[in-house]
Amino acid sequence: MNSPPMLLYSLDSDDTFAQGLAAALGVTLAPHEYRRFEDGEHKLRPLLDPRGSDAFVVHSLHGDAQDSPHDKLCQLLMFISTLRDHAAARVTTVVPYLAYARKDRQTKPFDPLSLRYVAQLFEAVGTAQLIVLEVHNVAAFQNAFRCPTIHLEAHQAFNTMLLELAGDARLVVASPDPGGVKRAQLWRESLEITLLRPVGFAMVDKRRSAGVVSSENLVAGEVEGMRVLLLDDLIAGGETMRRAALALRRSGAREVLACVAHGLFTGSSAQVLADDSIERIIITDSVPPFRLPMDCAVRRKLAIASAVPLFARAIKASLLAGSGSD
Fold first, then answer.
1. 156-305 has which CATH code?
2. pTM of structure
3. pLDDT per residue as tens digits for the range 107-164
4. 201: Cβ–Cβ under 8 A, 6 or more apart, which residues?
5. Across the chain, where does the E strand assignment appear?
6. CA dihedral of residues 276, 277, 281, 287 (deg, nearest 10)
7. Which of 18, 82, 194, 296 is most open to solvent, judged by the fewest CB atoms within 10 Å of its CB?
8. Out of 3.30.300.20, 3.30.565.10, 3.90.700.10, 3.40.50.2020, which CATH number does the structure's domain 6-153+308-324 have?
9. CB 3: neighbour CB atoms within 10 A?
């Protein structure tokens, strides 16, 4: 049996990521109509018949100057529903940044479980599978969804810059908080295999309550004279990374390179992250760094590692799996 035709859509106003993905897959982006009405409502419809297609919809759910994360989530859900209404065989959502993934457990009385609610919305509109990059808590993410999910690890994108990041320095991979320990350990293990040399591990203590970050500056692990790759899922206001970097430098780290999947750069992050404790900041292209002023100090130490190849490989594998099930 022939495989269903593939359609790749992008709902992002800045579709640089999607254009790169289309080029990597050897396809063109499928056209769609987008209309915004005066009262803020919007309409999206495909301009090619999706009947019987294997449709992939790219939409990164970060807020920007035009749309909030809620707007983007609503747009994505409605477009998935439209494709399903018009008989797409399968709809896969490609979400470089997944909104609400940070709220995955109850830490206060009567707390919401926002990640689970978002999962239920995707399932309700008939999403076949979800492909995402580096969520806050992988176990919580996988348990929240009942439809298949593919979780891509950002450290695989950073490995494209590995010779530059590692050099011949003594390396440590560090987590800025206890919640990211597993993420950092996975990269450390991968680096040891790739580099064929020992790579250390460290963790910085951190507490957060009511949005206020505090820390005793406790560093677990040996970092004296080391180059530290400080790995996290996202940068928002930047205070977590700055505090962790300061603690690592006080413990003797030679330099700290922040490696972060999603660069949201909210609030006063441009000032916070200008601190000399952080030598470089490496992010992926899941979220454009549009909030950073072009002339700020952070721009001068910022580098971007593309996650496009990771998503392209995941989509190709999905297409092969889909054709194998015919």
1. 3.40.50.2020
2. 0.93
3. 889 999 999 999 999 999 999 999 999 999 999 999 999 999 999 999 999 999 988 8
4. 172, 173, 174, 184, 185, 188, 221
5. 6-10, 32-36, 42-46, 54-58, 90-95, 129-133, 149-152, 171-175, 200-204, 207-209, 212-214, 219-220, 227-235, 255-263, 280-284, 302-305
6. -90
7. 194
8. 3.40.50.2020
9. 14
Residue 217 corresponds to which tokens in the numbers above? 């500056």
Query: In the structure encoding, which two tokens stand for residue 292, read together?
Result: 């950073």
CA 86 remoteness from chain centre: 30
Task: Tell me which amino acid residue 126 is.
Answer: G
Alpha carbon distances (Å) from 81 to 6, 33, 45, 67, 98: 17, 15, 10, 20, 19
Distance CA 22, CA 27 (A): 5
Pair of tokens at residue 163: 């010779």
Is the alpha carbon torsion for 312, 316, 321, 326 positive or negative? positive
Indicate the burial class of 234 (C-beta count within 10 angstroms; 0-12, 13-18, 19 or more).
buried
Torsion of CA 25, 164, 218, 299, to 10 degrees: -70
